[in-house]
Design goal:
homodimer; 337 residues; mainly alpha; Farnesyl Diphosphate Synthase
Amino acid sequence: MSVNKPVVTEDLKIFAKQTSDEVENAMRSDLDQTLQATDPLLREVLTHSLFNGGKRVRPMLVILASRICGKNDQALLRLAAAFEYLHVATLIHDDVIDGAAERRGRPSLVQSHGIAAAILTGDWLHARSMQLISEIAGEHALNIFCRATTGMVDGEYLQIRHTGNIAITEEQYFSIIERKTGGLIASACEIGAIYSSASEPQRRALASYGNNLGIAFQVIDDLLDYLGDQKSTGKKIGQDLVEGKITLPLIRTLAKAAPEDLSLLQNLFDDPAKREAHFPEIKNIITQNGGFDSALATAVKSVRNAVDALTIFDEKPMDSSRAMLEGLAHYVISRKK
Amino acid sequence: MSVNKPVVTEDLKIFAKQTSDEVENAMRSDLDQTLQATDPLLREVLTHSLFNGGKRVRPMLVILASRICGKNDQALLRLAAAFEYLHVATLIHDDVIDGAAERRGRPSLVQSHGIAAAILTGDWLHARSMQLISEIAGEHALNIFCRATTGMVDGEYLQIRHTGNIAITEEQYFSIIERKTGGLIASACEIGAIYSSASEPQRRALASYGNNLGIAFQVIDDLLDYLGDQKSTGKKIGQDLVEGKITLPLIRTLAKAAPEDLSLLQNLFDDPAKREAHFPEIKNIITQNGGFDSALATAVKSVRNAVDALTIFDEKPMDSSRAMLEGLAHYVISRKK
């Protein structure tokens, strides 16, 4: 990989903790200011949803993308917070859609406060995220952000369309994950650059970094659905498969499996209960056909593309932004949750 | 009332029909342009939700507010469409929250296409509305719009807090309806003015018109919950009361009812089924205490304030915008649905 120096994981951890604290402070002070005359329950549910140990990956990307182009100030933290608002809004609405009882090991908002609170809180965060982005980064940034958020909805629709469709192509899979996950991550990097009045090549480089990072992030997510540990991921293993979501490891397997494996797999796709019961068998067929290795290789390649996109930025003695962005990219590959 | 000339209802009807057609064309062409590469199901559900006989009151207000300040062009129709997008987004999410099977006499989106489609479509419309407003009317307008939409969420929370609370005060009631309904209507008028580069007094006058109109609109809505005809309103009569929403006619009644009526009413507020069974009796007590007349008088006063706010605009021979705004205000009082 074209990494110029070893990734200092300890540095990244310290940076992540510090950034996470700063972004949380920015969120708290934004809520203080915005919720002054509002119902206390709204504040309670927002606090419940926003402060529960999220990794703050998107805010970190906004901050690093701006810093690598030379701008770092207080308002940047509020801009970064806007991306966490939107991310949490989508998680809250996802939990309503999936009827999920838990989120990160705690009751989901829909579980603890009901459907009205969950839908409305998601809507509030959605609106506030856009207001912050428009105010801090301007109209062009908001335009990119809205393209990402409407794209996420489109990605979900595409996913619904292809649920249970074992004829789904790689192209269709990538077009789903680029919209569903890649778009927002790319927009975090691009909007950080715009906030920093980056040059056109800088902005494009960061958008490319973000897009590749987003793809790798989702491919790894899809691998963790098979290979993860529920204690780490906080998600039931095999859940996506049971729901009929056909992801890269299985797509690659379907493309090359022996006829008897293929007909077995096809036979399982008319019934979620069958998929649940035969999960170890399905996993085994994928392993034997190299589906997991092949998907991982794709994620690694995507991370390499992400890191390569950063080569236009010089290493600066006093600024570790590039190393941090590289470190984040490698973290995406090695993460267990 | 300080209406300068009789409201030409026929003119208003023609204007409403024409505006509604123009706004629908603007929505269709926006969807054509925006949905080019997206999943066809997204288009189907957006069409299902947007084109179903809505009254297009908010778009009309945007258009008239801009026109009365002197600006009328094609982009104004797209700005107006953004308000219909947001309005429909809130209706779709409301139907999910209420588990409503119908909307305007047809299956609601959550009923016809499921919860995922309904939540996601609401989110899409929400995002697109903000993108349009930022693009066409700028950052200040978006800021006002977001204050209105986050305020709507806050109004819903306040309403949830006071559900079944027969000690609710008039002040609390008005603070709910100003946020829930008044804010978006006021912002439609104010943003129309901003788009038209209105003077500060013009902008304030239109915001005041909108705010008063919004209050009247919601008070009449609350009256129709008791006095409406299900065939016209498309809503089950007494539904709000059964759900524990205590509105102006009942608040005014509770403030002056005889002790025996009061204890009867209080007794009904621990059980929705009791309220449903005793609806005619409750209605009768409100009538006898003048609760309906008194609420109607408040709506009429609010419409008068709305119309009075328009007096800073001169009547112009070639522009009927002021007459139309006055007409709309009067329509709000006389409407049956």
